[in-house]
Hints:
Layout: H1 25-33, H2 35-42, E1 52-55, H3 62-77, H4 83-104, E2 108-112, E3 115-118, E4 121-124, E5 128-134, H5 136-143, E6 152-154, E7 162-167, E8 176-180, H6 184-200
Parallel strand pairs: 6-8
Antiparallel strand pairs: 1-2, 2-3, 3-4, 5-7, 7-8
Helix pairs in contact: 3-4
Amino acid sequence: MTEQQAPDHDAQNQKPQVHVGTVPRRRRSMRREAGLSAVSAACATLVGMADYDERLRVPLWWWPVAAGLVALLGAEVHVGLPLWVKVTTYTVLGGAVGGFLLAYGHLRIRVAESCFTAGRARIPLWAIGTVRLLAADATRRRLGPQADPTAYLATRPWVPTAVEVQVVDDADPTPYWLVSTRHPQELVAAIEAARGGASSSGADGPGERGREVAAPGDADPTR
């Protein structure tokens, strides 16, 4: 499971053209790819202290398992070869595996000021509707038979729980974000607290929609 490209939330005051029929896949892809820079500009003020900050690092036990695999593969490759080949083999394999684990565990979930960040994607708080806590069973269903291919995913397989964040921006075709988190209740509370602060300071965008928080549990979300 990998992160998908970020949706576009900077065109909040522009209405997309409506076409009859199915939108070509390439056009949808280009639209989503263009969103990253636009959303980054919309959330450019996201600096300073965060209300919530979590990194989904890989489990610690992955490291000794990875070291064992490197040792096993290295032993298969360098049999009967000079010492410098052995050192090079272990260095390359160890660096590649270690780099992969660090990169894969670099996913960051953050709530700060007027934006919610999941990986490379950012969304203004005014564009968030219902926020639903998903237990392990509900998360698996949402990633499997009940998945929506147009949703934005920021998930990791070693984190069983998640939150589903509804997108209420009319200009964005993404129906919701599915974001892994080890602390779903704390994340939802941080989003609601930040939204309340943004509302009191007049930082909301168009519309005061979808302010409710769905009750936790295994119930499947409805849209």
